């Protein structure tokens, strides 16, 4: 089933009967169609009776007519994939003719204006592989309700603007499920007879149903406590399957860091007596902020020196903080409807970013954020799935948990914070939270609160929420008679649903340097809010070197052709680390783009200029103190970033150009890289901190350059590193270096790894990823073999992402092979997966959708697979992505 957009723009509300005729929930929903709920539910009492054969759910709701709602008075309860047993109003069971039951809803035509509704139904968590609603992950039963998973648990208005206080009773076998958890405080527990027990939980805060959570299982636990600034003692517990407890300490420490940071920075204190986290192995996303009971993917909790890399440690720290920050930005103030998702996600990602910057190296942390925008968000914004930070319509909400809503949303907040200044921004967020505490609100409400508190005029700025696409800026200068004129223009390319774009309000930071690298004047922030603007600066002795869009003040593409000499100068002395790195990237890009273009046109490769090698030489001679910054500055732009410079990417030309430059740099500086490697080798036990992880990054980078030219002795050296390392970061550095080098050293390291970590599925994901991304002629056959391997599990999203994501994203040469077999493999697996886990299948389909961004034969071969998918019976999730790709 393909998703259909109504081209005329005419919208209507299908009746239940029509909805059923459409077999799946494939009609498009529009932001402009929002209607307040006809009924509100103040109190919810849920009773779960967990049995091997299925789970009985009994819900009792105190319902009343919404005084703010006009129009029809029918009560619409969403629900799917479950068996209804009974419906009663004020204790009287309704006959089947007193309500209408469809495949996705139960409607009671004219209920009283205030009543108690009781619903009994049965669900089947054991066969729920979509990982939405109540499902099994190993020994654990858990729930996932965002966005609309609650309607797989019981019939309920599954929309975030219905907020209720929940009481949850869980009853289950005491041996199989010794731990029973739900949101809030446990107010009662005990024996239920026949080997069963029960527990009752009360959550004092009204919440939307997407924040509901329940967990039952035989779980191990670590425990700690935190005392808030005002003296509340919070019980912190982290549950996981037995045997994993020793991988959870870093997550617990991170939680306490996050709690302290939110108090210090925003004055926000935790509001319940317990904060419980459960780590499960099968989870579609990273983690979920359910009130007082977070459920996490183990990949975002587990971190032990020998099993997790520095990158994993940082990920765990940041995701733990992100979910904690949601307690205010998301839970206390939530979204009115799902079009407002960035209200909670953009703001929470921004808070997470600031937290990460405060914990790590500020410059390098920011560089990582900029890279994500450029390498992941810009491609989304320039492809078939481009949508505004606040989307106008969707078919399947799960398809809109995107990099645009999350990360571009955070950049938009960052621009507001910059315009307001730090303290004014923090005050404004407090104002927003105070004003709307306990409410479900909109992005517009947030912007209004920002304006009220800061005094900023955000009228034009609002377009950042409404218009999709990445603005393109050009900067040109004229220098004459001690005067510098800077001209900026902006335009934004059309996106699928918006052909005309209005100018954005864009902060562009600028600094100037003289030939000695000394700053000329103060750095400025220009505010570009028209299609074209000009600024004048006076009093120069000589033409300065300009550092533009310093620190990436706005999520835009800037065309400002600078000479290699200017870039080398900025790379050497720009005072902002992000800009130093950016100058290095631009310098590399100049060469890489020219060479990729030449290769694509079957011309002789373009050589790199001497200025580039001179810049690297002086960087290595006087490296920045921040070692991670050195590593970033020596890392070439990714294939994706290079490809972004072309209308249609020639994957092989881009890969060829990047590999050639990397090898050329490695050849010229072999001795220096060896010195760098030896100077940055481990000298003591593993510690996760800024200095040590920076050192390890430089070490890994040096190994990687040396491996790129198979430098003499590098194989044995890498194998020795692998064998001697006390931590996963260095082990992965060694394996990464060996990955594409055939021979004994590689085989021995890979074999050892697979044996050593056989019982650690998350660690084996690293192995799967390495296998899938290895350059080899039979790469596709290898991936097909791994799909059948016992270490792979098609029902686990982490395994699927490691193997198929590792292949499609990490093995350009095989995935994009001209024979189209890589695309075919991916499409085969999408079809297989779509029957089990549509959300994950849709995410994989997103890799084929931007076929127009690839030169042919690749582009056409990708489209062929999309067409093949479109001809199949697809879920609403995957159907929407495929349709967007073919539109
Ligand atoms: N709300 C979660 C977060 O951003 C992400 C999520 C979305 C998890 C949907 C599960 C399902 O932290
Ligand atoms: Zn979030």
UniProtKB/TrEMBL annotation:
InterPro entries: Aminopeptidase_N-like_N (IPR045357), Aminopeptidase_N-like_N_sf (IPR042097), PepN_Ig-like_sf (IPR038438), Peptidase_M1 (IPR001930), Peptidase_M1_dom (IPR014782), Peptidase_M1_pepN (IPR012779), Peptidase_M1_pepN_C (IPR024601), Peptidase_M1_pepN_C_sf (IPR037144). Residues 251-464 form the Peptidase M1 membrane alanine aminopeptidase domain. Keywords: Aminopeptidase, Hydrolase, Metal-binding, Metalloprotease, Protease, Zinc. SUPFAM superfamilies: Leukotriene A4 hydrolase N-terminal domain (SSF63737), Metalloproteases ('zincins'), catalytic domain (SSF55486). Residues 1-24 are annotated as: Disordered. Residues 469-560 form the Peptidase M1 alanyl aminopeptidase Ig-like fold domain. It catalyses: Release of an N-terminal amino acid, Xaa-|-Yaa- from a peptide, amide or arylamide. Xaa is preferably Ala, but may be most amino acids including Pro (slow action). When a terminal hydrophobic residue is followed by a prolyl residue, the two may be released as an intact Xaa-Pro dipeptide. Its cofactor is Zn(2+). Its EC number is 3.4.11.2. Residues 46-211 form the Aminopeptidase N-like N-terminal domain. The keyword Transport does not apply. CDD domains: M1_APN. Belongs to the peptidase M1 family. This is Aminopeptidase N.
């Amino acid at each position: 089933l393909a998703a259909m957009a109504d081209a005329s723009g005419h919208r209507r509300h299908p009746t239940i009967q029509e909805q059923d005729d459409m077999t799946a929930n494939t009609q498009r929903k529009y932001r402009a169609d929002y209607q307040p709920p006809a009924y509100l539910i103040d109190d919810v009492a849920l009773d779960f009776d967990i049995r091997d054969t299925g789970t009985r759910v009994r819900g009792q709701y105190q319902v009343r007519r919404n005084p703010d709602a006009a129009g029809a008075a029918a009560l619409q309860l969403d629900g799917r994939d479950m068996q209804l047993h009974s419906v009663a109003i004020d204790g009287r069971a309704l006959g089947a003719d007193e309500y209408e039951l469809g495949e996705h809803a139960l409607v009671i035509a004219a209920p009283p204006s205030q009543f108690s509704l009781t619903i009994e139904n049965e669900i089947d968590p054991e066969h729920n592989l979509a990982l939405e609603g109540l499902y099994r992950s190993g020994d654990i039963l858990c729930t996932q309700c965002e966005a609309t998973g609650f309607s797989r648990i019981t019939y309920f208005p599954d929309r975030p603007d219905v907020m209720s206080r929940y009481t949850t009773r869980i009853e289950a076998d005491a041996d199989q499920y010794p731990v029973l958890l739900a949101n809030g405080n446990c107010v009662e527990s005990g024996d239920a007879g026949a080997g069963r027990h029960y527990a009752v939980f009360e959550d004092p805060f009204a919440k939307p149903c997407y924040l509901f959570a329940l967990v039952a299982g035989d779980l191990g636990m670590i425990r700690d406590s935190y005392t808030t600034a005002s003296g509340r003692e919070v019980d912190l517990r982290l549950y996981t399957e037995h045997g994993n407890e020793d991988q959870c300490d870093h997550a617990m420490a991170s939680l306490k860091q996050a709690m302290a940071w939110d108090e210090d920075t925003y004055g926000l204190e935790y509001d319940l007596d317990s904060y419980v986290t459960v780590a499960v192995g099968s989870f579609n996303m990273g983690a979920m902020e359910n009130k007082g009971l977070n459920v996490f993917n183990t990949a975002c909790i587990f971190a032990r020196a020998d099993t997790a890399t520095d990158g994993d440690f940082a990920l765990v720290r940041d995701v733990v903080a992100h979910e904690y920050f949601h307690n205010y930005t998301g839970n206390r103030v939530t979204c009115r409807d799902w079009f407002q998702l960035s209200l909670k996600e953009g703001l929470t990602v921004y808070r997470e970013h600031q937290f990460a910057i405060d914990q790590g190296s500020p410059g390098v942390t920011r560089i990582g954020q900029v890279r994500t925008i450029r390498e992941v968000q810009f491609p989304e914004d320039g492809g078939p799935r481009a949508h505004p930070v606040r989307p106008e319509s969707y078919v399947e909400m799960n398809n809109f948990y995107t990099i645009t809503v999350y990360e571009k949303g955070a950049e938009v907040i960052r621009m507001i914070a910059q315009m307001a200044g730090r303290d004014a921004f923090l005050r404004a967020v407090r104002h927003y939270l105070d004003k709307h505490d306990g409410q479900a609100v909109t992005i517009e409400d947030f912007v209004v609160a920002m304006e009220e508190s800061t005094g900023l005029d955000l009228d034009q700025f609002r377009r950042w929420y409404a218009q999709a696409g990445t603005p393109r800026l050009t900067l040109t200068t004229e220098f004459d008679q001690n005067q510098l004129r800077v001209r900026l223009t902006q335009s934004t390319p059309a996106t699928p649903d918006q052909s005309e774009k209005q100018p954005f309000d864009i902060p562009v930071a600028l600094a100037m340097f003289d030939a000695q690298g000394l700053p000329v004047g103060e750095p400025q922030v220009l505010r570009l809010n028209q299609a074209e603007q000009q600024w004048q600066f006076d009093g120069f002795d000589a033409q300065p070197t300009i550092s533009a869009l310093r620190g990436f003040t706005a999520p835009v593409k800037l065309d400002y052709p600078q000479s290699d000499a200017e870039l080398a100068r900025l790379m050497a002395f720009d005072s902002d680390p992000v800009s130093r790195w950016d100058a290095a990237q631009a310098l590399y890009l100049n060469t890489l783009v020219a060479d990729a273009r030449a290769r694509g046109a079957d011309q002789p490769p373009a050589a790199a200029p001497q200025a580039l090698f001179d810049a690297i030489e002086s960087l290595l001679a006087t490296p920045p103190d921040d070692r991670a910054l050195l590593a970033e500055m020596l890392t070439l732009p990714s294939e994706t970033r290079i490809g972004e410079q072309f209308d249609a990417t020639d994957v092989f030309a881009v890969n060829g150009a990047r590999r050639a430059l990397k090898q050329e740099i490695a050849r010229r500086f072999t001795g220096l890289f060896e010195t760098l490697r030896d100077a940055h080798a481990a000298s003591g036990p593993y510690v996760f901190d800024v200095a040590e992880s920076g050192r390890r990054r430089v070490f890994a980078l040096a190994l990687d350059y040396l491996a790129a030219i198979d430098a003499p002795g590098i194989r044995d050296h890498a194998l020795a590193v692998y064998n001697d390392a006390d931590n996963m970061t260095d082990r992965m550095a060694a394996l990464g270096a060996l990955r594409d080098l055939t021979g004994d050293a590689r085989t021995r390291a890979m074999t050892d790894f697979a044996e050593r970590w056989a019982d650690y599925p998350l660690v084996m994901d690293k192995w799967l990823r390495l296998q899938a991304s290895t350059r080899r002629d039979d790469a596709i056959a290898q991936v097909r073999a791994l799909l059948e391997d016992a270490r792979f599990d098609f029902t686990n999203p982490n395994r699927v992402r490691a193997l198929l994501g590792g292949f499609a994203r990490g093995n350009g040469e095989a995935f994009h092979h001209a024979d189209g077999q890589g695309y075919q493999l991916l499409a085969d697996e999408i079809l297989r997966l779509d029957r089990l886990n549509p959300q994950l299948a849709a995410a994989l389909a997103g890799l084929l959708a931007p076929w127009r961004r690839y030169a042919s034969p690749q582009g056409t071969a990708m489209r062929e697979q999309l067409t093949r998918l479109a001809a199949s019976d697809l879920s609403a999730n995957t159907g929407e992505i495929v349709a967007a790709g073919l539109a």
